[in-house]
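Q: I'm building a small set of examples for a reading group on sequence design. Run inverse folding on the following structure and report the sequence directly after it, with nothing in between.
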């Protein structure tokens, strides 16, 4: 038998599983997975599919944010009218519908330092579980910045933050968005930071913090990294590839 096909020793598999939620060292019966592992895979696959198709309850999230953090919250929507259209037409998820543009046009035009946009993305459950607790950690760290109303956007993708940031005359935008679900992480939240947001910005002009969830990057760690990026973006007047992450341990709260 080819050595690469031999099963991992049970003791080694147990040690590896203690370090990761990935599927390593799975037992086999002949050429097939054992029933328990197969059923677990099917359960996780179903959770990932459910996360992609779930709809965000933006009203409940807005009420939670206003009760816990007390900023003003605007509820917006992309051009995608349904979840099916959103999944089939990524371009429509990057643009606001006309009603949302009207809402933003009614906001003050004074320049602000920061616009925070919460978008359902590909996992509404990630946003529902983690956006409000993350804001509780983040807002005290950025209390020296002027803040636009927080925007919650349904059927939205990352680039919709460019249109919103420009409309709110914000120097920086932060988009908190549900990431594409994995088989071990259906509720992972991402954060995208963009200096001088405006339509046409590329992903190379953004910085991303990923895997914000209870089993991944903690709220305190994510808030500390966000605070660092915001500070450096203002100092250097840019985000993206030229803006590097701080060395481990240099960001306050990273060891919490």
């Amino acid at each position: 038998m080819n050595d690469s096909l031999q099963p991992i020793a049970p003791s080694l598999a147990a040690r590896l599983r203690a370090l990761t939620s990935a599927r390593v060292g799975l037992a086999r019966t002949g050429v097939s997975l054992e029933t328990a592992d197969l059923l677990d895979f099917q359960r996780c696959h179903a959770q990932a599919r459910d996360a992609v198709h779930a709809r965000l309850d933006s009203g409940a999230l807005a009420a939670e944010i206003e009760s816990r953090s007390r900023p003003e919250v605007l509820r917006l929507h992309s051009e995608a009218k349904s979840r099916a259209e959103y999944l089939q037409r990524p371009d429509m998820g990057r643009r606001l519908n006309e009603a949302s543009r009207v809402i933003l046009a009614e906001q003050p035009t004074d320049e602000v330092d920061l616009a925070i946009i919460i978008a359902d993305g590909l996992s509404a459950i990630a946003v529902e579980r983690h956006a409000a607790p993350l804001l509780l950690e983040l807002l005290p760290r950025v209390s020296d910045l002027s803040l636009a109303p927080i925007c919650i956007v349904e059927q939205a993708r990352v680039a919709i933050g460019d249109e919103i940031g420009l409309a709110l005359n914000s120097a920086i935008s932060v988009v908190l968005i549900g990431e594409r679900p994995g088989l071990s992480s259906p509720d992972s939240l991402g954060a995208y930071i963009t200096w001088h947001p405006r339509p046409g910005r590329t992903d190379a002009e953004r910085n991303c913090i990923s895997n914000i969830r209870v089993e991944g990057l903690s709220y305190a760690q994510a808030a500390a990294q966000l605070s660092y990026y915001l500070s450096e973006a203002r100092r250097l007047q840019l985000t993206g590839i030229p803006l590097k992450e701080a060395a481990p341990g240099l960001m306050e709260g990273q060891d919490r």
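Residues 35-53 form the longest helix (19 residues).
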